Amino acid sequence: ISLKIMKISKGNPLQLSSLNHISLVCRSVEESTDFYQNILGFVPVRRPGSLNFDGAWLFGHGIGIHLLQSEDPENMPKKTVINPKDNHISFQCESMGLVEKRLADMGIDWVRQRVEEGGIHVDQLFFHDPDGFMVEICNCDNIPVVPLPEDFVRSCSRLNIQQQQIPSACCTTLID
């Protein structure tokens, strides 16, 4: 990315207002709807009748989830290992202990992780939906969101961050 492109993309060039929805391709719309409704508390909402493929729309926690029936469900990759570094959607919760207990009661396998930044701790639980898409539940609002200086060249490399001795909990765009 050139510096020129970075200057243009500062601020909110597309005048975005919020995240609207995510779309997930699934083996079974019914099974995924059940998971998002009964595990994560989403509510099914009406889809436009002009959509000529199987799917479901759900809404909750300020965002929509659009489930799309796979055209080839038998050949969808199956994820079995819970990897917190995989693509995921994250939800803030009020009680990590309650979430952990309820997941255990429902027989859902999860991986626990803890992030520490400047003496502040964030607990995270990661688990899969029926199709292997990662879901995270966390108390992430414990860590303040601190903008980085404009001229700071960043990478996601922990080594690079350590060399520059600048604490950072997030990755941002690298300027070439």
Highlighted features:
single chain, 176 residues, alpha/beta, 2,3-Dihydroxybiphenyl 1,2-Dioxygenase, domain 1, four-stranded mixed beta sheet, 19% helix, 27% strand, disordered C terminus
Structure description:
It comes from Dorcoceras hygrometricum. This is Lactoylglutathione lyase. InterPro entries: Glyas_Bleomycin-R_OHBP_Dase, Glyas_Fos-R_dOase_dom, VOC_core. It is a single chain. The protein is α/β, with parallel strands linked by helices. Among the domains are: 20-74, Roll (2,3-Dihydroxybiphenyl 1,2-Dioxygenase, domain 1), CATH 3.10.180; 77-144, 2,3-Dihydroxybiphenyl 1,2-Dioxygenase, domain 1 (Roll). Helix content is 19%, strand content 27%. The strands form two sheets. A four-stranded mixed β-sheet has the order 1-4-3-2, with helices on one face. The termini are close together.
Could you give a quick summary of the protein structure above?
Helices cover 19% and strands 27% of the residues. With 176 residues, the protein is of the alpha/beta class. Among the domains are: 20-74, 2,3-Dihydroxybiphenyl 1,2-Dioxygenase, domain 1 (Roll); 77-144, 2,3-Dihydroxybiphenyl 1,2-Dioxygenase, domain 1 (Roll), CATH 3.10.180.10.
What is the helix content? 10-25%
Backbone CA Rg: 19 Å
Mean pLDDT: 85
Query: In this structure, how is the largest beta sheet organized?
Result: 4 strands, mixed
Number of helices: 4
- What would the CATH topology of the domain at 77-144 be? 2,3-Dihydroxybiphenyl 1,2-Dioxygenase, domain 1
Lay out the secondary structure:
Blueprint lengths: L2 H6 L12 E6 L2 H10 L4 E3 L9 E6 L2 E7 L18 E5 L3 H10 L5 E7 L2 E9 L5 E5 L19 H7 L12
Parallel strand pairs: 1-4, 5-8
Antiparallel strand pairs: 2-3, 3-4, 6-7, 7-8
